[in-house]
Amino acid sequence: MEKGDPTKRFAIFASGEGSNAENIIRYFRDNGCRAEVALIVCNNPSAGVISRAALLGTEVRIVSRKELNEPSTLLPLMEEYGVDVVVLAGFLLMIPPFLIDRYRGRIVNLHPALLPKFGGKGMYGRHVHEAVVAAGESETGITIHHVSDRYDEGRIIYQASIHVAPGDTPDDVAAKVRDLEGRHFPRVLAETFL
Fold it and tell me: What is the mean pLDDT of the chain?
C-alpha cells in the first residue's frame, strides 16, 4: 500500500462464529488491499467472532437489538470508526432503514444460496441448506448482494454455484458453500469497493 493512498474502512456485522469476518480481515491484510476492517459489530455477546477478532487485533462492539435500531447510538459508532462500507457476514438481525439510507450502495450481505431461491426472513445458515436438500436442488451456492429494506432482495453483485449431489446432506452442502464463501467473498468485496 502506497503512503497517502486512501484506505477504505469496513465494518463487519456478525452474529456467529466469524469465519467470514476472519477471512475478510486476513484477505485485506495479506493482499495489500487499500482496506481494513475497522470494526466488528456483534449482537451476540457469546459469538465466536469476538474471540477471532481479538486474536486479529480488530475492535468489536456488542450492540443490542435496541441499540441497533437507535440512530443516535449506531450512526455515531460508525462515524467513530470512519466506516465507509458495511458488510453483513452471518448477521441475523434486520438492518434498520436509517443505516441502509446512510450506506446506500455500500452495504452488502452474503447469502448461502442462489437468490432469489431460498431467501427471505428466517432463511439463514442451516435452514437454507436443509431447504435446498429437501427441495431436491441439484445446484446451490452463494449470493453477494446489496442490502435493501427487504430481506435478500437487494441488487445482486456476484453469485457462485456448486453441485448438490444426490445423497448430499445439509452438512455436506454447508461445507461446499463455506468453501465458496472463503474463496469468493473477500475478493468480491475488494473488487467492488476498492
Answer: 93
Largest Cα separation within the chain, whole Å, is 54
Point out the residues that are catalytic: 111
The sheet with strand 139-146 has its strands ordered as: 60-62, 35-42, 8-14, 85-88, 107-111, 139-146, 156-163
Closest CA to 96 of 120, 67, 60: 67
Q: 88 burial class (0-12, 13-18, 19+ CB within 10 angstroms)?
A: buried
Per-residue pLDDT reduced to its tens digit, 106-132: 999 999 999 999 998 888 889 999 999
Query: Nearest to residue 87, comparing CAs of 69, 103, 74?
Result: 103
> In whole angstroms, what is the distance from residue 110 CA to residue 117 CA?
14
Q: What CA–CA distance (Å, rounded) separates 91 from 162?
A: 23
Please check whether residue 114 is in contact with residue 143, taking contact to mean a CB–CB distance below 8 angstroms: yes
